[in-house]
Each structure stands twice: as C-alpha cells, then as structure tokens.
C-alpha cells in the first residue's frame, strides 16, 4: 500500500480525526471530541493517523487498561477504567469511506499493536461488530465471544491478542 504515511495524531489534527470518527460510527457509538482529547493527552503513543496527499484517511486509538479480556462501556465512553495497565484496549479503528478496502485499517492496527509490543504490554483487546471478526482474526486476534457491552445500541464481540507475559 503505497502513498500512505503513518504518524501520531497531534492536537492540530484532532478535529479532523473526530470528523472521521463521526462519519464512521453512529452518533450513539462515536466517541466525543472530549474523549479524543483525553486519549491524545493521556495515551499519545496509541493515537495514530494514516495520511495521503495531506488528507487523513484513517485513525486508530486506544488506552491502557488492567482489563484482560473484555472492553467495558466505561472505556468506550467516559474512560473511567484507565491507567497504566499492562494491556491496550483499542477503542477506534476508522477509515474514510473512499479509502476503505485498501489495507489502511490493517496498517493502522498493526501500528498500534507494534507500539504495544515495543512498550512490552501483555495484550491488546478490543470490541468489534460481528462482520469484522474475520478481519481481526486475520491480524492475529483471538475471538473470545459476544461482549456484554451494548455501547451505542450495537452488539459487540470481544477479541484479544496476547503479546507478552507481563508477570515476569
């Protein structure tokens, strides 16, 4: 996939990232601009964008957590479950409609996983819609089952990728 540049999100691009989020998810499921600011302020290493010709084509972001196998509604919305836990919870993967099916989502997920590996985290967890389970399995995630979350009125499914044994 040529022509795309991955780089960490910055404050001056945050509103553009938020617009991409809003266009990718229902109003009830999309993160707020305030949630994006929280993620950028506290977890800047886990907020990436894919750019082409000066335009933001995709984003990925997440937060560190102590949860090991499920993403909670609190993490999706108010971020009550936060900290410097040994796991990364991916909260957003979004690609603009005109850039989908070009490998950008895979590129972004690999980038955030690589950052988690570099930071010696134990695992990466996320919730996805049912039709995306094969996409995440292809990237190395394990399907854990249906989530108890109904964030945004959507049925979510828990996925996990084990990285390191954090106990050692």
TrEMBL record:
Keywords: Acyltransferase, Transferase. Gene3D superfamilies: 3.40.630.30. The keyword Membrane does not apply. Residues 4-164 form the N-acetyltransferase domain. PANTHER family: SEROTONIN N-ACETYLTRANSFERASE. The keyword Transferase applies. The lineage of its organism: Bacteria, Bacillati, Bacillota, Bacilli, Bacillales. SUPFAM superfamilies: Acyl-CoA N-acyltransferases (Nat). This is N-acetyltransferase domain-containing protein. Pfam families: Acetyltransf_1 (PF00583). It comes from Paenibacillus sambharensis. GO terms for molecular function: N-acetyltransferase activity. InterPro entries: Acyl_CoA_acyltransferase, GNAT_dom, SNAT-like.
